[in-house]
Amino acid sequence: MMIKNEAIKNVLIPINTGLGNSVLVFPLIRTIKSVLKNAKIDLYGKNSFGANETFNQDPDILNIYSEIPIKKYDLILSPFLGGSVKFGLKMRLKNWGATIIVHRKNQTGISNIIKVLILKCLKIKTVEINENKHESWNYLSLLEPLGINTSSYIYNNYFSKELVSTANNEFKQSGVDKKYIAIQLGVANNLTDPRFWPVKNWESIISDLIKNGNRVLLLGDKNEKKLGEKIESNNNSSMIINLIGKTTVIQMIGFLNNAELTIGVDSGIAHISGALNKNTLVLWGPSIFSKSHPLGKNVNYINLNMPCAPCMGPSLYSPKEAVENCNDNLACMNQITPEKVMMEVKRILSNDK
Q1: pTM of the model
Q2: 181 and 136 share one domain
Q3: Which domain holds residue 43?
């Protein structure tokens, strides 16, 4: 059940994922529009942590739905973080004539054999997830059954000009002067997570930045507000602008796009800053670097490459499990010293002059 590429007009992609992962879908969207000239792309997602907002005003996107649309599609691509096999099966019942391509894991056992047979009977194409490849590469791999060679499509700009323009206008209206360093103190909406860098280290960095004449702008989810309040209470300074939990995603993009530098861990804000091609410094620890590092031309990393890392990700521990099972006191993050971070900050800023 395959529709010819030139006949593909309506495309649906589920994006039930977080803010950082949503950025990694952009290469797939841009490639579809480059190859399938007549295609109109719809996205479906429950707007986890504002992920849908990253696609607002994008000329390559027709609609963004928060509920599964009642509409006929020619092509449905179901990535592993969007819906994968389960979503593909659900959509087959609604779109019997569509080409449906889903990600599936390389698994063994009777249940997997049965699953593969069911998918074949329903004429749902599958693409095996390569856990050694970057997420953006895996998203693009969904186009392989269509005979599309994605290697020739390389993008330097991920967000649309329209969205960036709106974000910049929001920034101008904020009244904040441009010279500042943006920081995200938390990660994963302040849930238990091994990527967390100790607050005392952030306090040390922020104190040094202020001593050097740098203003600091704090960004993050509303669940991270207490982190910002602690920084403010311990650093009574007009050089700190605390906007944690006080911005929309579009406003946050505006602040990141106008920062001298953004510092954070492997988080949504780091991914957005990277995709904007802005100076970004990521403190990297337990995540799979080859799989999920931010896109962009100006991303820098501090990665201790501990022998026990990575420990978190597909086929590895969940964030909570990684914290509970770590026997090294989360050394991959805790042993990144404020001194090392400040050295890297100074290097990045000096190269920018």
Answers
A1: 0.93
A2: no
A3: 5-152
H helical segments located in the chain:
19-23, 26-35, 84-94, 110-121, 135-140, 161-174, 199-211, 225-234, 249-257, 268-275, 289-292, 319-325, 331-334, 338-351
Looking at the chain, the whole-number percentage of residues with pLDDT higher than 70 is 98
Average pLDDT, the chain: 92
Cα dihedral value 66, 72, 73, 79, nearest 10:
40
pLDDT tens digits, one per residue of 323-349: 999 999 999 999 999 999 999 999 999
CATH number for 334: 3.40.50.2000
Q: How many domains are contained in the chain?
A: 2
Question: Rounded CA gap, 268 and 22, in Å?
Answer: 9
Q: What is the pLDDT of residue 8?
A: 93
72 and 132 housed in the same domain: yes
Please give the structure tokens belonging to residue 39.
Answer: 């295609």
